[in-house]
Every structure is written in structure tokens, then in C-alpha cells.
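User: Sequence in, structure out. Go.
Assistant: Echoing your sequence, followed by the C-alpha cells.
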Amino acid sequence: VKNKMPAPVQITAEQLLREAKERELELLPPPPKQKISDPEELAAYRTRKRKAFEDNIRKNRSVMTNWLKYAAFEENQKELQRARSVYERTLDVDHRNITVWLKYAEMEMRNRQINHARNIWDRAITILPRANQFWYKYTYMEEMLGNTAGARQVFERWMQWEPEEQAWHSYINFELRYKELDRARMIYERYILYLNYKLMAVKPVFSETFTLKHLSRKEVKNWIKYAKFEEKNSYINSARTIYERAIEYFGEDNLDEKLYIAFAKFEEGQREHERARVIYKYALDHLPKEKCQEVYKCYTVHEKKFGSRAAIEDVIVSKRRFQYDEEVKANPLNYDAWFDYLRLLEADGNVEQIRDTYERAIANMPPAKEKRHWRRYIYLWINYALYEELGLGDMDRTRDVYKACLEVIPHSKFTFAKIWLLFAQFEIRQKNLQAARKILGTSIGKCPKNKLFRSYIELELQLREFDRCRILYEKFLEFGPENCTTWMKYAELETILGDVDRARAIFELAINQPKLDMPEVLWKAYIDFENEQEEYDRVRALYRHLLQRTHHVKVWISFAQFEKGVDEGEMSLKRARKVYQEANKALKNSQEKEERLMLLESWQAYESELGDEESQQKVQNLMPQKVKKRRKVQTEDGADAGWEEYYDYIFPDEEAAQPNLKLLAMAKKWKLQQQDQAEEEQES
């Protein structure tokens, strides 16, 4: 090539391959039909084809397609002897090729060479006895020829090789087609015996789990088929016997729910509903729980169709019991599931089962010793004790339950006052007061709690044991001296008993405690106590004592209201006004202007009710001005966040506020002057 330059249009290798593939799909014109008109031409054609076949075989003897095409060609030429020769040569090459045997026998059958076909089938099943296609074809051929005895003989030869399940059923169906029920029954028996022998042979080799899972289910299916065969042919007693034999054969180790369901449905079909019910119950009692789901379902359907209302409810309860049992097995710490389970069992009324379930439930203690994990668990013990006491009336067992519960609780970390109180109340119901006191005393000694003290004191109050109440209150106050409620209840008890001095001493001890949870409530109770006793001087002393500790506006107002309420005429009014003046003076230096305003408003209301115009005007002059102001707002990190408006109060007696008040007064005066000028201009 002179021009070595690249072509303007380049073609890639991919395009070349694609084009070649597309041209392969183009339909080539069929070869012309060849008409053979004389024997010499036919002989030449056969010779040419045979030479081509032989050449292909010589190139690759192991390709069975060439052999089969060669044999098919000879068969089409009606050269059966030559075709047999080709098949025989093929079998010499590969005598284990199933396709070759099938083609060979089918050729003989197509050409009605029955004895030759039998000969080939016999050779095939002798060489390859595990090839089921040969046996099926052989028996089918004999049956189509009407040679029933021959087909039966072939089946018998096949059964000696212990084939799979389908082969046995083919034999049984063959006998049933010819109404040979006794023979079919004998085959079923032989098959079941064979399965038993097979199971025994496999057991030493494989594990028990494998045997149960892979063999027993197949056996159950065949037992059921055998029984249904007898039922179909109206041999009812025989079918029932087969089911019973199957249950006895499998025993309790290899039980299967399908067998029991089939047996129960059989009895249901014979209208033996009691028998069916007994079978279902036996299955539910003996089968593992995970296999009972389908049994429950079928049992429920049966009872809905044929059972009474009580029987239906019994089935539903049994099913729910199974579900709860599975749920608590999956998660033993699911106490809500235990509660539902026990509630269901208590409705059923089986005492031993209920007790056993309670024992199982309380055995599942929370793993962590934290009270939040024990809150639900402890109610299992409470329900157990209440069931024994109220449901069964077994008081000794109830007492044992409470004791066991108290032993389980880790009292060093936490306790449950509810358990101690329930135990004590139980003993009181049994009229065993000493035991109840001992229980409550133990609880206070081991793990003192406010609730335990209060309940013990309430018990002794109901029994009118006031000396015991005093001792308990003293112990209670040693345990929690900051509890104002306890101090007040103790003082209230002494007041009820008429011992005012003891009550006053208790209040004195209480207000002198260094730490109190609600001191304002305690002071109020003490003041109310003295007020009820009409010890007004003591009340004033208490107010003065309290004001030494705090200058809260509510204390001043309460003090003033007290002086106002004391019925001493003009003197009480002066004392109340003096309290207000002292309060105003004390709050003057306080930063809480709202409290001072609250005091002045209370004072103003007092003067409006009982004062004269002079006193009212005096209080009015003390009222502050409400002023709107602005101040900067800063965020937590110190950045400016803009301005906000707020209201401030400016009192007249504040020195720093005088210029502001003067400025406000001048502004107000100027505004009034402007308004007057505007009115004069309008009139003119």
C-alpha cells in the first residue's frame, strides 16, 4: 500500500465484532430439496450420511449427541438392526448414561419390539437400580400392555432396593387402580416397617436432633396417609388403630403436632367430639410449648363448632396461658407479663399452678440493687400475699410470704415502707398486736422512713397509747429534726391532750433548730397556737423574734393584721399603725421596692377602713411614682443584646430621687400650661 496515512473514518474492533455478529443472524437461504428417485441414489445418500456420522464419532467418541443422531438416522431409515448396533456401541462407550438407555428403550417401544424393550429395561435397572426413571418407564410400559402381573413383579423388584417415598406410593396407587385394597394395605405396612428399620439404622450414625427433625416428620406424614387410606375406604376401626399405633410408636420423645391434629380431625369427622377433645388436651399437655400453636388453633375451631360456652372459654384461656408462658420465658424480667399471667391463672382457680407461677415469678429478682428496678417486682410479693390471705385464707403461708419478701429486700440500700405496713396491718387483722408493733419497730430500727413513723404513730393514736406516741415522736424527731410537719403534729397532739406547756416547749425547740424544711409554716403554726390560747403578749414576742431573723413584708403585714384583730379599742389601732410605720422604716433601705409598695398598699387599705383623712393623706404622700425606664441587656457571655424597658418606683422620701421628682413635677406643670394656652387660643 503506497498511502500510509490513516483513513478519515476509523473503525474500531468493537464495531467489527458487532457487525460480524449481526450478519450471523441473517437468514441464509435453505438448501435445495433433494429428491431421491432410484435405489442407487438412496444407497449413495445413506453411505454419505453414515460416513459423516462415523467421522464425527471418530473425532470425539464421548459426545453422546453424535451417537444419538446416528441412531435416530438409522431408525428413520427403518434400519432397526443398524440402530440397535449404534446404541450398543454407544453403551460400550458410556453404559451409565441414562439418556442413552431411555432413547434405546423408547425406540424399541415405538417400533413395537416389546421383548427387546423388556430386555433393555432389565439391563438398565440391573446396571443403574437407583435411576427411578427406568423403573417408572418399565412399570408404565407393562401396565399399558395390560400385563398387571408383570408390572407388579417389576414393582416388587424395585421395592427390594428400598427406594424413596414416591416409589412406594406409586406402587400403592397401582394396586388401588385395580381395586386391590388388601395388597395396598400390605404395601403400607411394609413401607412403615421399612421406615422404622431406616430410623433405627440412622440413629447410631446421626444425632438425635437430626433424627427428630429429618426423619420423624416424614414418617408421621406416611402414618397419616395410611390412616386416611383406611378412612377413605370406610375402614374406620382400622384407621383409628393406625393413629393409636402411630402415637404409641413415636412415644413422648418424637411427638409431632400434625399427627394429633389429624387424629382429632378424624374423630371429629366420625362425630366423636369427646374423643377429639381428649386428643387435643393430651397433645397440649405433652407437646413442647413451641409446637402447640397450631394445636391451639384447631382446638379453638373445634370448640367453636361443637363445644359449649365453658369449653370455648377454656380453650381461649389455655391459648392465652400458653402465650403468657412463652412471653415470660423469653423475658423473665417482664413483670407486667407476669401480672397478666397470674391474673389469668387466678381467674382459672388452679391453686397449685397459681402458687407455682408465683414462685417462678418472685424468683426473677432484678439484677441491679436500685429501687427503680424493684418497684414493679415488689408488687409480685404483695399480690402473692394478698392471694394467700384473701383468696385462700392461708394465714400461715401469708405470714411466710411477707417474711420471705422482707428477707429479699436489701434494706441497707433501700426499703419499701409499703411491705412493712402491709405486714403489720395483716397481723392487726389477725388480732396480733404485739407482732404488728414488733414489725413496725423492726422497720424503724432497720430502715427508718417518714411513712413508717407516721403509720406507727397513727396506729398508736387509734389505740389511745399516747405515751407510746410521745416516744415515737421523739424517735421521729431524732431521725429528722428538720421536718416541720413532725414538730407541728407533735405539738398538736399535746394541745389535744391539754398539755399546753409541753406543746409550747415543743414549738420552742422546733424554732430553735438550725435547719428546717418549712420554717414559715412552723412559725405560723406557733403564732396561731399562741393566738388560740389568747396569749397576745407571747404572740407579739414571737413576731418580734421572727422579725429579728427576717424582714419579709408578709411577716410585717401579718403582724399588723394581728394587732388590728386584737380587740383592745383605740390601742390596737395605734399598735397596728406603729407596726406599719416600723415596717416602712425597715423596708426603706431594702432593694425590693415591690415589697415596700405591697406594704404601703396594705397600710393604705387599713387607713381607708379605719383611719381618718389626715392619716390617709399621710400614707398617700408615701406612695411612689411609677416610672418607665430603659436598661441595657447582656447575654451570658457578656455581649450586648440591646435595650429593654422596665418599671421602677421612686419614693418621695428617697434623697437620690428628689431631683427626679422635682423634674417630673416641673414637666407636669409645663404640660398643664401648654394645655391651658391651647384652650385659650381655641376660644379666641
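User: And one key feature?
Assistant: The mean pLDDT is 81.
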